[in-house]
Every structure is written in structure tokens, then in C-alpha cells.
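Problem: given the chain below (894 residues), write out its structure.
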Amino acid sequence: MFKKKENIKVSKRADRVKNLLINASSKSTEQLFVQYDNGFSGYDKNMVKEMRGYFGENIISKNKKDSLLKKLFSTFINPFTVVLIVLALISLFTKDYPAAIIVTTMVLISGFLHFIQEIRSGKAAEKLNELVETTISVQRIVDDKDDDIIDSEKIEIPLDEIVVGDIIYLAAGDLIPADIRILSAKDLFINQSSLTGESEPIEKFSNVTNGESTNPIELNNLAFMGCNVVSGSAVAMAIAVGDDTMLGGISKQIQEKSPPTSFEKGINSVSWVLIRFMLVMVPIVLFINGFTKGDWLEAFLFALSIAVGLTPEMLPMIVSANLAKGAVSMSKKKVIVKNLNSIQNFGAMDILCTDKTGTITQDKVVLEYHLDIHGNEDIRVLRHAFLNSYFQTGLKNLMDISIIEKSHEHGKFNEWSRFNKVDEIPFDFNRRRMSVVVADDSGKTQLITKGAIEEMLSVSSYIEYKGEVKPLTEDIRKEVIEKCNEYNSQGLRVLGVSQKTNPSPVGTFSVADESEMVLMGYLAFLDPPKESSKEAIATLGEYGVGVKVLTGDNDCVTESVCKQVGIKVERIVLGSEIEQMGDDELKTVIEEVDVFAKLSPNQKARIVNLLRENGHVVGFLGDGINDASAMAVADVGISVDSAVEIAKESADLILMEKDLMVLEDGVIEGRKIYANIIKYVKMTASSNFGNMFSVLAASAFLPFLPMLPIQILILNLIYDISCITLPWDNVDAEYFKKPRTWDAGSITKFMLWMGPTSSVFDIITFLLMYFFICPFALGGSYHSLTPENQMSFMMIFNAGWFVQSLWSQTIVIHLIRTVKIPFIQSRASWRVVLFTTMGIILGTALPYTFIGKIADMKPMPLIYFPCLFVIIISYMILVAIVKRIFIKKYGELL
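Solution.
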């Protein structure tokens, strides 16, 4: 009868379940009983087993966890670390132990840092399961073995024992155990804010729908797992369980591997640029040296040193240090960074999608206006509302609290609270109003009622109109409704306040007294934006970040809030419209529209995915279960202090303060991290490429290697140590004003321009060393010397280029780190100045130490240093010129 449940993709399952729910919504109780082979008597144990076999258990499943060993292994599998591992193995094979140890250390540090982050993930799905650890009442056929009697009973069972087709009984306080179709209901109100963002309970009915919506959440005879019953009671049928529920779909999306973020793609693209250059350079160097010098083993070792030279060994550490420094900086601003990579994604972000309720709003209600019938502020309306809210003994809702707070603002609390309470008629969702009876010092009693405007009109026969109490005519009623509609269109929630003097005698008050009342005026409430929302959104705009609102709340309230926080609302697209759009059409719409309302969780995630496919780096700011899927697929998921636990678990960053201006800090920190990483990548890649280009040229005419493999590695290490402080470098304020994304092509261009620039002076250094400085130190040209002196010639030559290369590589850090004039318009941080200076001093002194001797270097004669200064100053001038040409041609430097 039923098709057995299959293991299908999440997107297909979501479509299937959506259609299943819509179909159930449009069928009568009798038709559903036929479809699911059940009735009000419930299933017997055999049918329960059969239905569980067809549709699965009511458990939100989790992906099988990878073992720690597998997670550890996976952290080391990416293009960059693979290259370093291969180089380390080759170095070990060729007995180049220092190189093998250093490169292996870098790989281990990088890998273990990523491993620590990896084992912190995967908690989001566990939080979803915690929502459903309870029991529910169902109708089942029970077989009494002692009396051999088969009877139908209402029994309590754990939620995970619910099966599709079960008859479920709901009462106030119950958690909805599955996605259900309401069969009968009495004053049933469901809180589904965790799925939709709507703060008010939604009334549910048992009526059959007829194609009213293609979004199941908008259908008023369906309720969903994870929501809860606020009031009333109902009988329902389970339509979807476990992974097939809306909540199960969210869990699956959270567990699915997210597409690579902007940062991950950027790092991989950089790695592949370096790999491609390596694959080109290494064979060329190998064959040139092999053919010209005849020693193929030496040529191979030298080619290996080229490969090591082209790989920025410290990149993993530089990246990790930058990200860790960013996390510490953000923690000082009360932001918890759960995913280190997300900080750089924050800086690259050019679109921030945000939920409305609890993110850009305060998730509280304020009394915006207390007005008479004509829309004028009236303190009497506030006084009567206060008496109603203050003296009622039920649970005070957000509106009651806001009314009492407003009385404090007006300094009337002490005066008004002196009234005496006589009686009350509590609120219920059927009447949608509540009443209190109060008496003043003279003994005058008043019945004061507040509630939904439609209800207040139904119990009021009179109205305070233009200063007089007049009968409530049909024309005046229409005027009142039009006024309330006007307030509703502004995103305000409107209640009416009515009063009645000297009602029934004390002790005889009842709902019947709520009649022939006098309508006094309105109370208009607003879910206000956070104080920082408007400024934060404007500031993000200044930094090139567009803001889009994706909410499950209604369009009127959404439009009002958006206007208050400075978001232009030219058009609002609803979830029901999105349901009818294909991906191509929606891709166009999301570029043109900034506000989307009445969205399901899947629709939010779909919009985020399509924005990313359009080439954007997308952040998502949310606080509810309905936001978890979108946060999981965004480049950076951001949660707020008041969010539910599942949202916090799904987020990459959590804002622990209500001040949204911390978003600006996150953008700046992310762009600072990118700037300081890209400085290292571009400087190092171009310098190493220039050095290798120089080596290639030198190999054609030099009778020996211009620098030994161990010398190249030491050079790189000293340079890399100089760069360790780059995470703390200053970044020009102008650099923060636009999103920064990884572009491997820009790195290639930078290498091709700046690399040969340094090669010009490398070749000049070669010529000076070979034809002037080394012959001056040893008393003759290379070929005229004895083998022993030829070895000394080579060692002085190697040392001379080693020092010149270190000076040029290190000083260029200060030249390339800014588009401005270095040292004058833009200065590096004191840490960078200190470490680069120490690196130059250490490297220059090295040939004069025992370490230099071990590395086969000899001291240079004093005449070398005047030549070095001239070369470095000339190099700085040429770099400044090339930098200006590069910026003019490509529009940016870093």
C-alpha cells in the first residue's frame, strides 16, 4: 500500500514532504483515514510496526561520525599541505634533514590547528534531538492478553514511537511530536516562532484547505515538530516523522557538508597557483643545470631547492596566527568566534542576509502610542490600559509589561496603582480580550476591557467620539477599522480599550458584562529595532556590504521595521511567490529585491545558496531554528545573544552584546586579516619567484650554483620569521572600505610584475660578485684559481647573493604593504619594523658566524657593502615606480 521510505537527497526529500503536507492539508478526515488505513480507534501493534517500516522512526538521524583518526587525516589533505609533505619526504630521502624537519613542523602545526577546529563541529544536530525528548498522548488499539479483549485506549508514549498515521491528542504545553494535520481543534493556538519568527501564537483549525498556499507553514491546519501548544486542544494525525519533518530537514541541512567558503576557495586557489609555477619551474631548472653542468644528482637537489623556495613554508602559520589574533580581538568585543576561517569570510562579505525578529529588532514589545479614536495621544487611554494590565492576575504578556513601563515613563505609576481591584475576567484565546473591575476612592467601579480591535468593536455599543459619548454607528465602525488598518500597515499591532461604569454588583461579574461598553481608543505596539540597528546597517553600506532581510514574519511588520532601520523597501517578495520561481528567475529577483517575508527555513537557505552562486560572499545573521539552515550554508553564520541554542550551534560567530555595531568591527577585522595574509602571500610568492627567475638566468652562465639548497631554506626561514608579526601590522583605513575576496589571478599578476623587478638587481648582484667583488677578494677570476680558492669564490658569491636577496626581500615588505609612500604616509607596526630589522641584521651577520660556515658561506669583503647599499636604494626606487604602474593598470595593489 505504501512505498517504502528511501534514502534520498535532502532537497528531494524536502520537496516530497512539502507535497505530502500540502496534500494532507487539502483532504478531509475521512480521506486521510482511508489513505493511512486508520481511524479514531488508532493502530494496533502490528500496524504500528508496518508503518514504522514504511516511513521510518520518529528520530532525527545524525550522520555517522568520522573517527578521530579519519578527521585527523582529512585535515592534512589539501593542495598546499600535500605539496609540503611531498617536499619533506624528498628532503628526507636525499638526506636533507634540516629541510625535512622544518617543513614537517610547519605541516604539523597547520594540520593540528585545523583538527582542533574540526572536532568542535557537529553539535547542531544534537541540539535538535534535545527538543524532542518527551512523551505525547496517542490513540492505540491495546491487546489485553489476560482477558483476550481488544480495546482502543489513549496512551502516553515517547515521541520517538510516533508513526505516520497515528492519532495524536494535543493540549496546552505539549510539544508537537511530528508534522501533523489537525483533525479537530478547540481554541488551538500554536507558538511556531522557532520556525517562522512570528512572535504571536498562531490559531490552528481543522478546516480543509483548497490550494491556499504552496508553503506548508502558511496552512492553518498543519503544525510542525518542535513547535508547542500555547492553549486549547486538538486531535491530529501524524503526516511526517523524523527526518521527513520540517525540523528533520533543517537537521539534515546542518549536517550536510557546506560548500567551500570564500576563504577556503581562496587558500586553495593560492596553493594551486604556487603548484603550477612549481611544476613549470622545477623541470626547467633541472634540465638546464643537468645539461650545462653534467651533474644530474646535483641538478636534482638544486631543483628540489627551487620547489622549496617557491613554497611559502610559513603560510599555514601566518594564516593561523592572523585568524587567532582576529579571534582574540573579537573576543574583547564580546564576540565568540567558533570557526576561525569565518573571520576572514566576514571581511570578504558583500551581502549580509538577516532575520528580523531578535536580530535587528529587540524581540520585545513597546507601547508606541496610546491614542483616542481620532489618533490623538490620550493619557486617559493609557490610564485605563494600565489599570487593566496592572491588576490582572494572569501571566503578564509583553504588551502588559510595555503598558506598565509606559506608565512609569509618564510618572503615573504610583498615582494609578492606588486604585482597588474588585474582580477580573481572565484572558482566553476564544474571546481574545481580558477585563478587570476597579474602584476608586469614591467607590465608583469601572469595568475596563482591552483586546483585539475586532473583539472590542463587538462588545462596544458606544464610542468616545469628538469629545462626546456617541452610539457606535456603522459609519463610525468603518472609520475605526480604517484607522486601525492604517496603523497595521505601519507595522503596529493595535489593541482597543473600552470601559463601562458601574457594571454588575460585586461577585456577579461575568463575560456577560462585556457588552454595551464605551470604546475609548487604541494602543499601538511595536517590536522596536535595536538602537544600534540603523547605524550598523548604514555603516555596513559604507563598507560595501548590502543588507537583505529574510524573515518568516508578515510583510507589513517587516516593511515598517525595514524603514525604521534605513533599508529601502521598493518591493517585498513573499515565500509563496518564491515557491513558484525556478532558480534562474529567483537568481535575478534576489539581486533586485532586498526584503523577503513569510519565508520557510528552506527558502532562506535557498536564497543564501543562490546569492553565493551569483558570486557573492554571504553572511547570515539569525537567532531561531528557522535560521539554522541558512546559517549553515552561508560563508559566515552569525548569531546573537538572545538566539536559541540550535542557532548558536549553527553559527560561526556569536554576538554576546546587543550592540550590532560590532558587525563593523567584524568587517574591519576580517579585512585586516585578509590584508595581512595577502601581503605575505604576494610578497613571498613574488620574491621567491624573482629569486628563482634569477637562479634560472644564473644557471645558464655560472659554473656553480648561485645559492645552495640549505642556503635557500635558511633565507626563507629568516624572511618568514621577519613576517611572523604581519598579523599585527597596520592596515590603511582606506583598504577597509570595500569587500576583499581571494583572487589567484591577482597573485599571478603580482608575481609576474614584482618578481622580475627584483631579478634585475639580482642579476646586477651576480655580475658584481662574479666579475668584481669575488675576484677582488681572492686575487683572480674564478677559472684562474685553484680548486680550493674556487670553492672559496663560490662560498663568497653565495653569501653575497644571500645577503642581498634577504635585504631586498625584507625591505620590500615596507614598500608593498601599502599603496601610499612607505615610512612617510603609512608606517608598519613597531613589531614589523623590529622583526624585519632584526632579520636583516641576523642575515647580514650570518656569513661571519659558525652557522654561516656550516652553511658553506664565507664573509664578504668590506667593498661589498657600498655596492649593496646602491643596489638596494636603486631597487626601492624601481619598486616604487613599478608599484604605481601596477596600481594604475589593475586598480589595486593588494
